[in-house]
Amino acid sequence: MKNHIKKFISLIFIIIFIPLYSSCGSQNLFSSLTPETTKQQAEDDINSGNYASSISLLAPYVASNPGDAEAIGMLTTSYMLLSGINLLNIMVSIQSATGSSKNNFQAILKAMPAGNATNVSLLTKAVSTISLISVSSMNTSQSYLYAVASASLAILIIKQDCLDSSGNISTSLTNAISTTDANSIYSNLTNAQTGYTNAGVTSSSSSGSGILANLINQINSTTGASNAAKVANYIISQE
Fold this sequence. Notes:
The chain has 239 residues and is mainly alpha-helical. The protein has helices at residues 2-16, 18-21, 36-48, 51-64, 69-83, 87-96, 101-111, 117-130, 140-162, 171-175, 179-198, 208-220, 227-237. It starts with a helix and ends with a helix.
């Protein structure tokens, strides 16, 4: 059953981001990747949930071919899946938590994977990878992937820095957040809203994506002498 779930989640990502991977004409799904054995192995790995292996194949390829949007999309998705980003679960959980922004924010925190150094590093790589494509050049699917990766990174930094051992927001830990991390949260949520907007998702939407897109609006509406201060004050207000 666990393997079936992994394959289903992988399929969800592939369906959503198929324009990133699909090729033109009669070429196959991973036509831009060479050699043929690498293409087939990458396909097998992502379909079987072996994301670490797909990353080991795709990372050096993208490093040598930074203009290959298909490979960039696939590598970005592999980083996200390895970090535990479950797109279906996240969107359902967020959308189900109606009633207040606090309920929505708590649902976002619970739906996201653990905010540890490994997952933050994976999502940092995901954002860096998809950012190899300029925002102005991204198509709808690439913009959505950029938005999800950016929002997820911001939330995992919050989970890493601001939650106590019980998984609850801590005022003392949040007040101690570094300016660097607070600014990273702010910039990633700003970028997420840009990505969602370019993908046709507005911050006024009641969907899970719309709620994520609206987070930066809530932060900007929070009192604070700087963007970093607004981030900290907003997080504390959601305690």
